[in-house]
Amino acid sequence: MEIAICHFCEHHGPSVIFHTRLATESDINTSSQLSTPPATICCTACNPFGNDHPGFTSKEATSNKTTISSNRYTSDIVKNQLQQACFRSLSSEVSPSKEGPIFFSDSGIDIHVISHTFFLKDSSARGFQRWFSVIALANESAVLLKLWNTLVPEMKEIIADLQKMAAEVYKREEEQCSHRMLRSNFHIANVGAARSLQDISGNPAILLKLHVQFSRLILLANCTPIKVKSKVLESTTNKIDDSVATLVRICEEIGPHFKAFARHILKGGSTSISSDDLCFKESCVSALQYLVPVQTTKNFIIVQHTLQTTSQPCLLITNKGRSITCILNNCEGYKKASCIVTRLENILLAEDVSPSFIHKQITNIREQLLFAAKKMQELKNADQQKVLQFFQSFGYDTGDLDIFHHWSLYC
């Protein structure tokens, strides 16, 4: 089975952006997936990887299976199948509502497809939106039909995340300069100009994020439910416990630098997660979401194999087996006292407490943070000394104001 994301290009028609598949023994031994690069494509919308990018490869630790994502094809047959599935998913085989899942087959080239079409907001596109699809194709219809209830909810979750990111970018661009007004008053020559998925989503690492998500779908289709469970069907309690446990492990590894770590994350600092284990990456992102104002991955940089050094302040996280290594790279030291940071330290580094208890306490802190952030937004034009005195009356300290200010940007 293969998973792909496709789009309708204003200049080239339906195009496969990239596809993800399970690696074969031949791929692993000979790296054949890198041997036949596609013809040179200058369109950034159709080829956001660029012509020299080999794609992404990940190995799932539990099943020991490897997934590959790229815009290259192992054979002309696979290329034809993907391109035909892409063409039909964005032309004839579309849900009546234009957005939604649909199943279709093509006996001529022996493929069966689940396709989910959707729109992404784009201020430079005709109609201010672009058409995409996520497709899953296999050689047997029974395989896909049995997986419908698993794959479709997962696709919807991926698409909803993309649409949310694109809507945020569109809103921001319209606030800066209304493209609707410009088009109604002037002739704009670059209407429909090609934009990469990175630009539309506002996330430079979106292709890597999709690789991780598509790899999960591939593993869902190739593993028994006991080995790899769908996020949609997982127990909420287990997900919470796993996320909290990972957050506690990260905090324990940070140890004496916890306050600097917490302040870095709470203020929206970047985090680089390096691992071959897909589950570890997802677990780290889920864990650190507790300490950010909105559910987003824009501050997370997921990389392969080795930690990437950078001059920018960044929390570097990697794992080897069950051990976690965390490095605060050029991060601001803990110089201002913070009530929020101290409370988190007392909770996350406490001994003999259950994950459910930690979850409840962090949830309470988040709610208080969001309330304080809204107050900060209301007082943004007030005298800063009076603002400090106001928050100090509720037990907060000078180091909390920077955190409130960052969180107020999302209220």
UniProtKB/TrEMBL annotation:
CC annotations in GO: cytosol
InterPro entries according to UniProt: FLCN/SMCR8_DENN, Folliculin, Folliculin/SMCR8_longin
GO molecular function: GTPase activator activity
Domain UDENN FLCN/SMCR8-type: 47-411
GO biological process annotation, one example: positive regulation of TORC1 signaling
Top-level taxon of origin: Eukaryota
Name the record gives this protein: UDENN FLCN/SMCR8-type domain-containing protein
Organism of this sequence: Daphnia galeata
Organism classification: Eukaryota, Metazoa, Ecdysozoa, Arthropoda, Crustacea
